[in-house]
Amino acid sequence: MSHDEAIEQARKSLYLIGKEFKLDDGETESIKAVVPWEENEGNWQPHVCFYNWGEENPDGKITHMNLEEFNRRFLTAGQKED
User: Fold this and answer.
1) CATH number for the domain harbouring residue 36
2) Of 32, 56, 61, 73, which sits most exposed with the smallest number of CB within 10 A?
3) Separation of alpha carbons 19 and 74, rounded Å
4) Residue 20 domain-assigned (yes or no)
5) pTM value?
6) Which domain holds residue 45?
């Protein structure tokens, strides 16, 4: 995806900011931002940013994840926005 396409996809996904979900350890977190991210040279994708908690990050660490992967991993069909 081009940079401009990723910007547009991120823009269309801004409604996710503030959406709550559960991390793998059961901690509730919310999406802080949706941004275009260059995954590899010339391949831009929308990514969500959130705090990730865990034993190695007891105070939380901001992280990002590809939007499609995030949807598959954390959001169930009943939680997704139309």
Assistant:
1) 2.40.10
2) 56
3) 11
4) yes
5) 0.82
6) 3-74
